[in-house]
Write a structure and sequence with these properties.
The chain is mainly beta. Helices cover 0% and strands 48% of the residues.
Length: 330
């Protein structure tokens, strides 16, 4: 059982402002890792300062990026005209996944909803967790069959209280992991045979064998462990070479890893301490969008990160893969 102390950063998506969020301290046990600094510089893509920017996903069919502020906003960013539409939800939101041109699926604090982007009307699809659990929905993504894999977290970040679910298109659901603290970072290998997942405070990335036809995961392995100098793993994404990119909460960077060897391949600095999520986008999927958080910096650090909360972009020298749609977009 992993033990959690008040000094460990809870994670970007923790909605409790009273929770203690501090960067991890360096550990002598982790100083031997060789950090390869790639010459890639980020720039501001979206000037909006969010409280907790999260969940970017490139909706390639409609040439836009969907993303969120977990504190209650859904955004639709279109690079061709630079517009960033905000839809205020009045509830916390954990993730958004694309569905159709005028519809998306969102995991709000109290359930899974379909949203009409024209009318902004929400239609409840279901609540696999159940409100009696006292948790809220957090990060999630769809697999190639159009199922939603989504996790939860306690609003006060209570350890080992949350779960991770598979949600079918008919809203039949199954709890696939329990005793989770902060469910984050769902991604699949390019061939669809591996699923990667993070329970943020553990500092580890898990890999599962994935059966797309059956929609099952098995053979869990811990494939990446972050050293203390690289904070905790929040969001993740995969590139076309099968390498995993991680948003390093509390460490002002994103990193690229080989999940087969556990080796870190690349590190790109970001001018925000709490880096929350990332996604490949653009017409060629060669731009890496990075969301950040303006909250929960240690006292005095705010002046060092005046752009915290903005969304950044960088061309890291590798392309991503196309996203998957709820119900295959059908």
């Amino acid at each position: 059982m992993v033990q959690f102390s008040k000094g460990i950063a809870c994670a970007a998506i923790c909605a409790c402002l009273s929770a203690c969020h501090q960067p991890a301290e360096n550990s002598q046990n982790n100083t031997t890792m060789e950090i390869k600094q790639e010459k890639a510089t980020v720039s501001v893509a979206i000037d909006t300062i969010t409280r907790v920017g999260e969940g970017p996903i490139w909706d390639y069919k409609y040439h836009r990026m969907l993303w969120i502020d977990t504190q209650g906003s859904l955004f639709i960013y279109t690079p061709q005209d630079g517009k960033n539409r905000e839809i205020k939800l009045g509830k916390q939101i954990g993730t958004v996944v694309p569905y159709k041109e005028n519809e998306v699926v969102v995991a709000l604090e109290d359930g899974i909803y379909k949203m009409n982007l024209e009318s902004e009307q929400l239609t409840l699809l279901g609540d696999p967790e159940g409100r009696e659990a006292g948790n809220r929905y957090n990060d999630g993504k769809c697999d190639a069959a159009g199922r939603l894999w989504v996790g939860t977290m306690d609003k006060d970040c209570t350890p080992l209280k949350a779960n991770f679910f598979k949600v079918e298109n008919d809203m039949k659901s199954e709890k696939v992991l329990s005793n989770v603290t902060i469910s984050n970072g769902v991604a699949w290998s390019p061939d669809g045979k591996k699923m990667y997942y993070q329970d943020t405070p553990t500092k580890k990335v898990s890999a599962f064998d994935f059966d797309e036809e059956k929609g099952t995961i098995s053979n869990r392995q811990e494939v990446i462990t972050l050293p203390d100098s690289l904070g905790t793993p929040d969001g993740n994404t995969i590139d076309e070479e099968g390498m995993l990119w991680i948003a390093n909460w509390g460490a002002a960077c994103v990193t690229r890893w080989n999940p087969q060897t556990g080796e870190m391949l690349q590190k790109i600095d970001v001018p925000a301490l709490n880096v929350s999520a990332l996604a490949f986008g653009g017409e060629n999927l060669d731009e890496l969008y990075i969301t950040t958080c303006s909250l929960w910096m240690p006292e005095g650090e705010e002046k060092n990160y005046p752009e915290a909360g903005k969304t950044f972009v960088v061309k890291p020298g590798v392309k991503g893969i196309k996203c998957q749609y709820w119900a295959k977009g059908e």
